[in-house]
Amino acid sequence: MSIFAISSEESRYTLNGALMLLKPESITMVATDGHRLAHCERSGEKFEGVSGEMKTLVPKKAMDELKSLLDSTDSETVEFAKDESTLFFRIGGRLLTSRQLTGQFPNYEAVLPRENNKFVSVHCDELSAAIQRVAQFADERSNAIRMRVEKNELKVSSSNTETGESEDSIEVAYTGDAMVIGFKTLPATPRAKHAFDFPGALLAAGSLGLFIIGIGGAAHGAQPVLVAISLIGAALLGFILTRRHADHPAPMLPIDLFRRALFALSAATAVCSFAVQGLAFVSLPFYFEDVLHRSQVETGFFMTPWPLVVAIMAPIGGRLSDRFSAGVLGGLGLLLLGVGMVLLATLPAVPGIANIVWRMAVCGIGFGLFQTPNMKAIMSSAPPHRSGSASGIVATARLIGQTTGAALAALCFGLAGRDGAALALALGAGFAALGCVMSFLRLTVSSQRKA
């Protein structure tokens, strides 16, 4: 009963087995992986040859083999002995030997409740059946199940944003205060067996760096040959990177995840949205100061509504993402962002303060409505064991979008001079429109979460 809680992480040596505690009239098995703890105690029987307290760390493999032997025999007794390094289990005519784990098992008694006055008795088969029925609607990433104990009733429930929610109830003998119990939602993930890919990191940095240098050089009037060399070098390094990571277990650039349509579209819309942000945040200060002749202090205040509204809209977008598709929310958010960019690009020659502020607020509403659901879509469309790679793409998409937007803003000023801000804002509206289309395209594909 304690095997399930044994840790599978090789680095946590003493947790790779269960603690067997033998006393003259009781036996206790304890296992933990640092997140959950299994404790099973049986008393009322006398164990011959045991005097005092005997502690033994039994490896998980030995536990599995012992369980297999017990399941395949009619013997009701197990003989146990050990020396300094070896464990011996005799079941009928079979003898199982195993090495003994060494080390200090954690002080599990420190986390066991001492003054618990709430007890619920429920039939194992009824609880197991209820969990199996409800688990069909549990989130595939967390498999979270919630139990709520009320007067004479135990409610088992789970929910999923795509398939809905389920609840089952069991009659129990309980008259205490209502309480809610949630199962662990953070799965234990084993450590990676491969080392960090330094050549891959250098290839990724070189490819992205040369790309930005090429665009920046074009914006600053660099020689066309140097710009072409930078862009060709970026493409070449990017090609080598993709070839190198074609079969890598944990690629620096997770090409395999982009085969998932929902993941690829979500990442692309993120790049578009941050490109809009980069174009706006670089060009608007120059526009406010050089074209509208506003002071640095006024310019700072004019830039404030956008991030302020994003901070307000982000939690609202998160709540909405539990009820509506990221494709719909992201599409509407980028549509509003694009409208806001057009409104900023078409500001009157002498706009008032309110005229600027409400346009910036529209951009903030759109960006905030898009951001949280889109990040959730990126993370949830990747398999659970590739969450690290997915979160890396979140950061990569943000940086690519922002740096590309900033470089393109510089290019707009290089091409249009004083009118470069209006050109950059119009280009930002184009990126928002492209992202809007890609976001709505997510409604045509299904999520692929499983590995």
Task: Describe the protein's architecture and organization.
This protein has 451 residues and is an alpha+beta fold. It folds into 4 domains: 3-109, Roll (DNA Polymerase III, Chain A, domain 2), CATH 3.10.150.10; 119-182, DNA Polymerase III, subunit A, domain 2 (DNA Polymerase III, Chain A, domain 2, Roll); 196-253; 254-444, Up-down Bundle (Growth Hormone, Chain: A), CATH 1.20.1250. It is built from 11 helices and 11 strands. The longest helix is centred in the middle third of the chain and has 31 residues, at 261-291.
What is the CATH topology assignment of the largest domain?
Growth Hormone, Chain: A
Oligomeric status: single chain
Indicate the mean pLDDT: 84
> Any idea what the CATH superfamily of the largest domain is called?
MFS general substrate transporter like domains
Distance N terminus to C terminus? 28 Å
Order of adjacent strands in the largest pleated sheet: 3-2-1-4
Largest sheet: 4 strands, antiparallel
Question: Can you tell me the CATH class of the largest domain?
Answer: Mainly Alpha
The CATH level-2 architecture of the largest domain is identified as: Up-down Bundle
Taken together, the total number of domains comes to: 4
Q: Which structural class should the secondary elements be placed in?
A: alpha+beta
Radius of gyration over all CA atoms, rounded: 30 Å
Order of helices and strands: EEEEHEEEHEEEEHHHHHHHHH
Low-pLDDT residue intervals, each spanning 5 or more residues: none
